[in-house]
Design goal:
The chain has about 180 residues and is of the alpha+beta class. The chain contains six helices and eight strands, in the order E-H-E-E-H-E-H-E-H-E-E-H-E-H. The strands form two sheets. It has a four-stranded antiparallel sheet, sandwiched between helices. Strands 6-7-5-8 form a four-stranded antiparallel sheet. Strand 2 and strand 3 form a beta hairpin. The radius of gyration is 16 Å and the shape is globular. The mean pLDDT is about 95.
Length: about 180
């Protein structure tokens, strides 16, 4: 089965450079098959050689060793991507302004309550399981809400993709390579 591995904060702002051709080669070296990437923001699609969670850990360790930076790698199945799209609780006027942040754990209820204090302006957010859903009223580049500050308040790590990218990943994961 093709799974999706989402790298946090690679190839953004000039830091943590990870060429997608190198990522594909690395995943293949680690035993993955049907290896593909989608855009340059750290989206890997592949069939792992064994346990998907363990493979995410192996990818993280291999990138740390080879490239000298440490970035979380979050694993999702195509069904989990589809569920994230279907459960998006916020109005979507533009899929490029609405995001799913894939979290490494379900935030504690008390943390979600405390995170309400994070300034958001006209931006909206909601936690559903291990996904943080965000709608930026004016787009991410003009956001009042700081997703990093929100994640710290929630006590979790995550990596965001807009709804258009999530839909593409779900579709591509279901296609033959």
């Amino acid at each position: 089965m093709t799974d999706v591995y989402l790298f946090r904060a690679v190839n953004v702002g000039g830091t943590a450079k990870l060429p997608m051709a190198d990522l594909r080669a690395l995943a293949t070296e680690l035993g993955a098959t049907d290896v593909r990437t989608y855009i340059a923001s750290g989206n890997l699609l592949c069939t792992p050689p064994g346990d998907p969670g363990a493979f995410a850990d192996e990818l993280r360790a291999a990138v740390r060793l080879r490239y000298g930076f440490d970035r979380e790698v979050l694993h999702r199945t195509p069904a989990q991507l589809r569920d994230a799209l279907l459960e998006h609780p916020l109005d979507v006027d533009d899929p490029a302004r609405s995001y799913v942040t894939f979290l490494d754990a379900v935030p504690a209820a008390a943390a979600v309550d405390a995170a309400q204090a994070v300034e958001s302006g006209d931006d909206e957010w909601a936690v559903v399981g291990d996904h943080l859903h965000v709608r930026f009223a004016q787009g991410a580049g003009k956001a009042t809400l700081s997703t990093d500050r929100l994640l710290r308040a929630l006590g979790v790590v995550g990596t965001a993709r807009n709804l258009r990218t999530v839909a593409q990943l779900e579709t591509r994961a279901g296609e033959a390579p």
